[in-house]
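A.,

Following up on our hallway conversation. Structure tokens first:
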């Protein structure tokens, strides 16, 4: 890290990347925008009260709370989406599990948070690591496999070896945790009244289960939390109530909250924290419908509550015990005061697939993305500057006008909408621009003409003024969805790539086809080289093809990936280009030699779009999981 902070070394985690056995080097992450809020208890607060730890794709992000600093746990870590996370009591270790392809083993990674390095990679569970917890003495980790595995395993942190394990129950188990203050006792709970207390004997390497008696009650449990006096365990249910279980008697002693009609928590209790320091005798619960409530443990009455946007999947209490963070399934982070539940929104991000990126012409300080909404991001601070929403509609493409006065967007309802970049107010809307959605959009350099592509293969040119927006020409030669539209620097031609295997260069003055490129693929992206002499294309054939613009012939074909490639971007100097696709890997290529020089891994979903910043100092990729990754351009790739 750049500065010395409590609990962390002064060495930046990204600088510890070891050289690959191959000559291909790894790209350094500059920053990320996102939070995988679907990971239960995925938002953790480090005991130093200065860093939040959360998963994003296959990357674990360590973010400073007050400063715009981020550090990343990647090397020796996960290659698929992180599924669970647990911080040790004193912040020395972090344990994380991941998803895996069905039938394959899903690893657990133990991280040393003082050095930001992976200590051990533990593999026993198949398909998924459902939940994970670290004992109070920081010596043991307990992990739970997914529904295909359903086993509980206890690991030794120091040696990285499995101590013992057992099948969790006949029914599917959803959560497991160490009982606070006890390093020899566990709690597990799941579907169909599956609730057990386990005793752990390290000397005998044995786990012994004890079923909890729930009487006539029938519930599915999805979360658990123990009290600091080790007498009570709280179990959260899918029906929105909380069960209090006596540990010694292993029996249900209370349930709540009372007055369920008034205090109805939908979609289950998915997260819980204890408030022993500031308000003893209370617990705070987070529900799947967004309710966050404080409950009195004695009376089981709701003391106060609030509602956030999305499900409250994570709750993280600070060291003083007077504030806590809430992480939601919509990727938002809130800071809430425990005394009066006064809250503030701390960060936001996309939580659905992001479809496109756009930079202003010649300006690298901000960029726009489109998903279920349009968002403008500050590239340096990685904060949201503006959000534009059209209810119940998805934005498929976005383009910031070269004059910077409008953000032009294409939507799934077939309309083209332009918004003001500062206020987000609607400037104009072109109704029925394309049937079944506007899938590609671009503008000429004078910002007076819009070129759009549609789901049915139409390419249309629109003349835009303040008062009127009129269609100048409609060209129909594509027989499939238009995926890519780019105008050349002269504003005389544009190139479009479509699903029908054709890539057409259009004359924007005569409004007809100038030339056509054919290949046995569905073209996903087609971009001009900065000198306008060549076109780079890619698609479902997993190849990158160089085309001569004048002769409309192939110059070179590169085998680039084992999966479909979705996007391309060429640097401003024309010396480098990047590609991203369904294999979730960003590749940085030399344009002349056609070889991969650097790769970037971190996404857990398909890379849907990628782009060089105008100053070429960094690259941005977005994915189907809703993550935005910003990659530092290597020194040798910067313009002279």
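Then the amino acids I'd put at each of the 640 positions:
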């Amino acid at each position: 890290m750049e500065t010395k902070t409590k609990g962390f070394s002064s060495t930046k985690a990204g600088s510890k990347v070891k050289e690959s056995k191959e000559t291909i080097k790894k790209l350094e992450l500059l920053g990320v925008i996102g939070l995988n809020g679907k990971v239960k208890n995925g938002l953790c607060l480090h005991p130093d009260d200065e860093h939040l730890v959360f998963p994003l794709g296959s990357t674990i992000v360590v973010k400073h709370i007050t400063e715009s600093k981020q550090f990343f746990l990647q090397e020796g870590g996960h290659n698929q989406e992180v599924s669970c996370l647990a911080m040790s009591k004193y912040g020395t270790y972090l344990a994380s599990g991941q998803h895996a392809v069905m039938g394959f083993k899903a690893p657990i990674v133990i991280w040393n948070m003082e050095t930001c390095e992976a200590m051990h990679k533990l593999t026993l569970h198949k398909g998924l690591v459902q939940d994970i917890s670290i004992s109070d003495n920081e010596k043991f980790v307990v992990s739970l496999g997914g529904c295909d595995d359903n086993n509980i395993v206890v690991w030794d942190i120091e040696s990285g070896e499995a101590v013992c394990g057992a099948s969790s129950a006949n029914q599917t188990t959803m959560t497991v945790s160490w009982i606070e203050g006890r390093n020899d006792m566990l709690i597990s709970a799941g579907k169909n009244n599956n609730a057990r207390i386990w005793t752990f004997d390290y000397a005998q390497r044995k786990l012994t289960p004890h079923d909890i008696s729930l009487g006539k009650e029938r519930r599915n449990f999805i979360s658990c939390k123990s009290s600091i006096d080790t007498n009570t365990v709280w179990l959260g249910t899918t029906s929105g109530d909380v069960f209090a279980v006596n540990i010694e008697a292993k029996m249900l002693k209370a349930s709540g909250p009372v007055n369920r009609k008034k205090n109805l928590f939908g979609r289950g209790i998915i997260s819980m924290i204890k408030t022993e320091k500031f308000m003893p005798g209370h617990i705070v619960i987070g529900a799947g419908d967004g309710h966050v409530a404080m409950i009195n443990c004695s009376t089981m009455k709701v003391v106060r509550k609030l509602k956030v946007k999305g499900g409250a999947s994570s709750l993280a209490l600070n060291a003083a015990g007077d504030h806590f963070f809430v992480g939601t399934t919509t990727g938002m982070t809130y800071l809430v005061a425990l005394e009066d539940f006064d809250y503030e929104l701390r960060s936001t991000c996309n939580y659905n697939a992001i479809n496109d990126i756009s930079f202003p012409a010649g300006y690298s300080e901000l960029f726009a993305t489109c998903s279920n909404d349009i968002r403008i991001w500050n590239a340096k601070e990685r904060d949201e500057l503006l959000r534009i929403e059209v209810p119940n509609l998805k934005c498929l493409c976005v383009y910031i006008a070269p004059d910077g006065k409008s953000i032009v967007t294409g939507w799934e309802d077939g309309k083209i909408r332009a918004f003001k970049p500062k206020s987000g107010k609607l400037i104009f809307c072109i109704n029925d621009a394309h049937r079944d959605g506007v899938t590609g959009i671009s503008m000429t350099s004078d910002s007076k003409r819009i070129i759009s592509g549609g789901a049915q293969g139409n390419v249309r040119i629109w003349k835009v003024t303040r008062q009127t927006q009129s269609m100048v020409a409609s060209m129909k030669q594509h027989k499939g969805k238009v995926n890519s539209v780019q105008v050349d620097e002269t504003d005389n031609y544009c190139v479009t790539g479509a699903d029908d295997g054709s890539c057409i260069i259009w004359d924007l003055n005569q409004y007809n086809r100038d030339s056509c490129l054919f290949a046995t693929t569905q073209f996903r992206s087609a971009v001009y080289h900065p000198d306008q002499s060549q076109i780079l294309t890619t698609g479902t054939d997993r190849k990158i093809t160089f085309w001569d613009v004048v002769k409309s012939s192939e110059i070179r074909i590169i085998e680039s990936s084992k999966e479909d490639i979705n996007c391309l971007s060429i640097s401003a100097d024309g010396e480098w280009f990047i590609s991203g696709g369904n294999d979730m890997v960003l590749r940085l290529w030399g344009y002349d030699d056609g070889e991969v020089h650097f790769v970037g891994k971190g996404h857990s979903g398909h890379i849907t779009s990628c782009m060089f910043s105008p100053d070429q100092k960094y690259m941005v990729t977005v994915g189907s999981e809703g993550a935005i990754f910003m990659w530092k351009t290597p020194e040798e790739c910067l313009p002279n």
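The longest strand covers residues 117-126. Curious whether your intuition agrees with the design.

B.
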